[in-house]
Amino acid sequence: MSSHSHHSDSGHTCPHPTADENATPGWAAVRSRPLSGTVALVTGASSGIGEGTALTLAALGARVTVVARRADRLEALVEKIESAGGQALAVGADITDEEQAQAAVARAVDTYGRLDTVVANAGVMILGPITGADTTDWRRMIELNTLGLMYTAHAAAPHLLEAASDGPRGVSDIVLVSSTAGRMVRGGGGVYNASKYAVTAFGEAFRKEVTQRHLRVSLVEPGAVETELPLQNRPDVRDRMYGATPRWSACVPRTWRTPSPSSSPGRATSR
Ligand SMILES: NC(=O)c1ccc[n+]([C@@H]2O[C@H](COP(=O)([O-])OP(=O)(O)OC[C@H]3O[C@@H](n4cnc5c(N)ncnc54)[C@H](OP(=O)(O)O)[C@@H]3O)[C@@H](O)[C@H]2O)c1
């Protein structure tokens, strides 16, 4: 991640990058457009890291298929990419449904004729202790962070292998977005941790199977990035996560904070 920092209304400096800051490649890279002629697909592209990644891939010359459930957000992203001279396709899909994940990959290949780069990024993080947890939250995380990512990789693999054999770069890429939580466990994040540790194991095996055929399997483990990710949590959990120190709370947009118990919006259900 970059070394950008930004100031909050509290006057503290946030040491963490925002997804937008990461979406700005250097001008030299943009001019040379090293991904020209290639096709990319990004899951979870309607916000945060996925949106930033899609913008960057498009700026580097790739035609990009952006996948998530919020079609309006995706359409806005496609417009943004097209107005900057890029090419993009919005595909509304819930990738916890394997058929929808397969259909999203098929749309990309049908539209653009190939698939060189996949960023399996869609994810949800709902924190809280294991004891007394609502296991619906567990299913949401495992079905998206783990199985959804696996469905995406499974559907894309044949196309990526084909692209590696005839692509302009001689390689293709799948990037699995895990987390520092896929490497380091704390109390209160057990199932999020489990969903991301599984991504590491899956990626290791996949890499061993396809590297010699020039499909590169990468694991990205971001630290804290200012996105909509915490919105899925109960307000009290959000406050504990991000309100603990001024330094951390400087990273949190005002809308994420719980104003007061009386005006608490209750559980976030923005999607
Ligand atoms: N932000 C961080 O600090 C951080 C740190 C480490 C790792 N990560 C990882 O980075 C990835 C992206 O997260 P983010 O921080 O960018 O959060 P975000 O802004 O909440 O983005 C999550 C994306 O996943 C999509 N998504 C959710 N459910 C989906 C479903 N069923 N089918 C398809 N797409 C779905 C969302 O779109 P829709 O709601 O429109 O479907 C959204 O585009 C996640 O895997 C997360 O675990 C984030």
Task: Please write out the topology.
Layout: E1 6-7, E2 13-14, H1 19-22, H2 27-32, E3 39-43, H3 48-59, E4 63-68, H4 71-83, E5 88-92, H5 98-112, E6 117-120, H6 135-166, E7 172-177, H7 190-210, E8 215-220, H8 235-242, H9 246-249
Parallel strand pairs: 3-4, 3-6, 4-5, 6-7, 7-8
Antiparallel strand pairs: 1-2
The chain binds NADP nicotinamide-adenine-dinucleotide phosphate.
Output the CATH homologous superfamily: NAD(P)-binding Rossmann-like Domain
Tally the helices: what do you get?
A: 9
Could you name the ranges where pLDDT drops below 50 across 5 or more consecutive residues?
1-10, 257-271
| Lateral strand order in the biggest sheet | 5-4-3-6-7-8
Instruction: Assign an overall shape.
Output: globular
Helix/strand-derived category reads: alpha/beta
Largest sheet: 6 strands, parallel
CATH fold group: Rossmann fold
What's the CATH class, please? Alpha Beta
Q: Which percent band covers the strand fraction?
A: 5-15%
Strand/helix succession: EEHHEHEHEHEHEHEHH
- The helical percent reads 40-55%
> What average pLDDT do the residues reach?
85
Number of domains: 1
Q: How widely separated are the two ends?
A: 27 Å
Number of strands: 8
